[in-house]
Please model this.
Amino acid sequence: MRRPFAFIVGLLCAALLVFFIWPSPIDAVAFDPEPIPELSGPYQSNNELHALDKIYEGLCHECEDIAVRSDGAIYAGEIDGDILLLKGGLKSVVANTGGRPLGLDIDTLRDLLIIADAYKGLLALNSSGDITLLTRSSEGLDFKFVDDIEIGPDGLYYFSDASSKYNFNETLLDIFEHGGHGRLCSYDPVTKQTRTLLDGLQFANGIATSPDSSFVLVNETGLFCVRKYWLKGPHKGTDEIILGNMPGFPDGISRGSNGIYWLTIVNPRTLQLESLMSKPFLRELLAKVPAVMEVAVPPAYGFVLGIDADGTIKHNYQDNELKLLQITSVQEHNENLFFGSLIDDGIGVMNIIN
Model:
């Protein structure tokens, strides 16, 4: 009777030995985040975001970002790579990237839809449905996870590479590692040159440019902040955090009207996850078991902020009832806000609440 027991114990010990010896998919870096701010003051809990309506349900699946044309028609990128044109309650498929389209913006000067595709790179779609690769590397380093795009008033395309190490399906690995693999880049459609403006970012995400092209904002999801990079003026080439230690993980950001920049927070921070960040060895062990790592993902929570150029919060919309799951992008058009979602069906729309 002892032999089977001893055999099982031996197998378990061998399995544990292999588990500890087997290399982790991440090289975790210790990070000691500031205390999570409470939902009070500028983050006061409310349910104003629940006023949104869902449109194009059943027609737009997991459309992470949208771009609204001047006539109100909407471009959106689906999980299967389709680029959709949504208008009058109907949809048409105008192209397929063969990858995972995320950020979108319209180059009105050239009549192009510019697409940040997580796998393919930065793409351009013309009115005939033809897709052209613009760039997939910067300064000798390939993009692994092209995330968001916004065209500046100066005509340059500003975009983020969330991670030069991990791809779209490995988002959690990048967040767990906290290695600073994100980049803020620009692409000049005239010279066709790609530049890295900032590197070392903790999961570079949403992009927004100023009306005078003096700066660009980028969300750092893994650092819970909005960073400003100066394009001109006395601070040209420098950067600063204008809104830090947010209560959740920022995703999309876009330029609105009246000096407002809209940003989304996809998930709240939790003590359970934050307690792991100062323990790189433990995170490396957990990263070996994807199912366990998934448990550390915080629950979804509807959260959209409107900030000014200095990071002061002017609007605060929340929804704990999750009328639209995991809002990942927000675009302003004709005094309305349009919301995309990485995991839900349809698009959200709501009047701006003053």
Remarks:
- The longest helix spans residues 2-21.
- The helical segments are 2-21, 171-177, 271-277, 280-286, 290-295.
- The CA atoms of residues 61 and 180 lie 31 Å apart.
- Confidence is low (pLDDT under 50) at residues 5-19.
